[in-house]
Amino acid sequence: MSPASxxxxxxxEGTFTEAAIRTLPEAATRELIPMVSVPAALDAVRGxxxxxxxxxxxxxxxxxxxxxxxxxAAGEALMIYREVVLPISFAxxxxxxxxxxxxxxxxxxxxxxxxxxxxxxxxxxNVTWESAASNADGARLVQxxxxxxxxxxxxxxxxxxxxxxVSDIHDAENAETRFVLVGRPARPPxxxxxxxxxxxxxxxxxxxxxxxxxxxxxxxxxxxMMRIESRPTGEGIGRYCFSVDCEGHIxxxxxxxxxxxxxxxxxxxxxxxxxxxxDRQAPTVRAGTTDEAFSTAADWVMRCMDGRG
Length: 309
What we know:
By secondary structure, the protein is α/β, with parallel strands linked by helices. It is built from nine helices and 15 strands. The protein has helices at residues 16-21, 38-46, 66-73, 113-123, 135-143, 156-159, 210-219, 253-265, 291-305, and strands at 6-10, 31-35, 52-59, 63-64, 79-87, 90-94, 105-108, 128-131, 149-152, 163-169, 176-183, 195-203, 225-232, 240-247, 266-276. A hairpin with a 3-residue loop joins strand 3 and strand 4. The radius of gyration is 23 Å and the shape is elongated.
């Protein structure tokens, strides 16, 4: 297939990311290529080897996936076009015939550990945990005999010739992971009325209230922030950029106005895209922040300038 028909994802086969990408309607007509890491999946898009990459960006228990957040903030610009939210529960995968009392070593992705920590303490308090590159890679290591068990999606068992000794393991009810489909920059998808906009911004200077000044650009326009995370820039201790998701689309006047404020006050702003929300939940728009309100206010200013105010 041509690069335009390829999607990459965080592999290997059997990851939750593969399960998420297969929920996309176009997945049936794309060549889905597993990659060894988030940077590798995104670099394939940057290099023109694939049209898109699906990567994890946020977990409801562990928070942001720093590898993805950092990659989107640095390097050649990319854009988010869609998000997928997948319910997450783990199975304890073992080689056939393994009993629970025989397990001495377990593995899984580092993000999995906080989601099964209490279960481990109750049922396997003396095991040794070693991190793997992904949950599916942990299953592969169990298949090879390097570990006794792996926490992964139950669907990975067949791929690696394992069996689920225990299923539906999760410390937190309703745990979810959010994934984003990333491509090269282009015009954002049209507004749906249930959208999300993501950016990264850098402070111009560090002074009391510097971050508050920028957050006020959202608050004063009635734009609800859904996530904010600080990440080191690599420029020295105390130097951070901020990754933000907010409700709304860049074509919404309140969102566009807030982004213009960020651009005026920040050292740099990277627009990461406006795209449909996975939950299709419409934002609550405060009085005075609708597109109509912005247009009415702009018309009033023009009348004042013409002596008709």
